User: Fold this.
Amino acid sequence: MFGMGQPKVPISVTDLKFSIEDIEDYLSAPPNPRFQVPYTPKLWKTKEGETVVVREAKKEEAEVILDTLKQLIDHKYDKDFYHLVGVRTYSEILAWVQNRIKDSYALVVTSESGELLALVNHRFWDENVAISLHTMTFRRKSNLGIMAYASKIEHAFDFVGVNEWWATFESPFGFRMGFRYVHQTKQWPQYQHELGGSRVYYITKEMWETTVKPKLKARDLFGTRPVPEDLLKKTYPLRPPEKLEIEL
Assistant:
């Protein structure tokens, strides 16, 4: 019977105790410095003329992020897939903070006073492939989503140096974003995205450099650097959105 095997040599004790610290070494997914390359903050202007800051999220800011996402875990937001994406992103941010997801990275978009406007996250499968997880905007109609999505691709290609970006899209709005930036499709079901086994839409490093990035810059969706130090400081501490502007 499974679990009833006996060692072939005498053992001094019948039970071995493990410390929590020993067990945690097996359960946790500590960040690999290879993939935790700091993202240089940048500025971007919305089509309404508001200046926003894109920067890496800090784990100590997770409480604000989670409290914001928790509001979307409600049937009243079961529109445009906000409910589904909110639940999934909540679990990913929680796993990121508690070391239960491998090589994850998150960026936030804030107002000049630190109000959370958008959130994106991704993780690294290995040195060649980055996996897009989710893109959440708490203010729509300002192109925050497409700009923030591009920012995490930028982190993967320009800062970490992977060769491919893999995404899937759970809403028509997400698919439109991928379609506009010429994602290609891998054969399915031979290749499946980890977010439910759906199709993999991908961008290569060459596509990023020759097509996607130039298109983003031409449409003023890339942003500029540097962020003045005094302005960057104002984005801390991160504040929750004053209201969720997610209705079109």
In short: The two ends are 60 Å apart (CA to CA). The beta strands are 42-45, 51-56, 104-110, 116-124, 129-137, 164-167, 184-185, 201-204.
